[in-house]
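Review box. Two proteins, two foldings.
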Amino acid sequence: MINKGALCAGIAVVDSVVRPFVASPKMGTVALVEEIGLYPGGNPVNTSIDMARLGSPVAIAVAVGRDGMGKFLIDQLSLSGVDTRPMFVSNKFSTGASVALVRHDGERGFIHTPGANKIFSDRHIPDTILKRNKWLHLSGFFLMPALDGTPSSRCLMRATKLGLTTSLDVCWDPSGKWRGIFGVLRHVDWFMPSYGEAVAIFKVKNPDQIAVEAFRLGVRRGIILKMGSTGSRIYLADGTRGIVPPLKVKAVDATGAGDAYNAGFISASLRGLGPLDSARYGSVTGALAVSGMGGAGNIRSWGQVRALAGRVRVVATSVKRVRV
């Protein structure tokens, strides 16, 4: 029984997903694809919808415009069972939007316009909202100029003071600078980037060394590296390393896979499961997201994920000097 749930906060967009994308057509011509779909998008949007499907109490704090796309996001979140009361609706900025270009193998690239995400800051996440929850998940770092860096630190510190567990995920930094995150990590319980993002941030490729660097900068409880088709790794502050294999599925659309992993991990943690077990659930929800279109893919229920979690066996070992 979960008494309090999670607040997911950060970037919100409407995703136009194009599949399969091979190459851009020449100007003045037309290229045919199998599918173009409109889906709720943005890291916290995906994670909150996935958590709601898993039966976890979840609310969302994001900024959207007072336009058709903003209404679409609010409606889709509400229909999924997400508490949308913390959302901010801007009269000045439009809703953020992305075009996701998905290849045959499920990998994708994005074209993005930030819209109202440009103004979303820690002032949109007041203590009154934080107090209703047990977990704060910030995601979309590097795409929110008014929240990234010091404002994120302020928000995370307030959440910690109120007794919430905190987690942080990032987006690809289109500027290529990867700045502003190092001072934030000491306020984070769980850091949850993709492997590629972590390599770009820390400038090292060895996953164990990435963990060393993240702990050195102050991450408190653990680091999760999501490594796509090869699975994931979880590093705990006590020196435990868990190698988490992927649940094998046919890849259709990798959009939101990392966000779905986060949803499985957080939902399992809120139910009292330990970190290694929670990583198994993250592996399953990530795989189910990849096996269907949009951020939620084929995620249906907690019972569905629980039944599949037994197929994922985490190999736990010790890593010397993970915490430095």
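Next protein.
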Amino acid sequence: MHVQVVTFRLAGIDEDAYLRHVDAVAPVFAEMPGLRAKIWLADPATRTYGGVYTWADRESMDAYRGGDIFRRLQSDPHVSTLESRDFAVLTTPSTLTRGA
């Protein structure tokens, strides 16, 4: 399992428009190969949004990062300060805490 944390700030779009957009695109993420779960993040006070992705493996995450959807996010004029970090999962302690 592999985890990716993506954060960004909204620029030139209000929160309501952004929420309508993510509601429309969420089904696309649900069908992504290797994506076990995505938790959508929001901090309206700082206009910071993003997601925590749980991938079956690093290869699935790399395919997403190299694909059209992530490229569109990177070039979206309404997205600034995009950050993507990835983490290996420590299986034994994560299993004990119901995270794996």
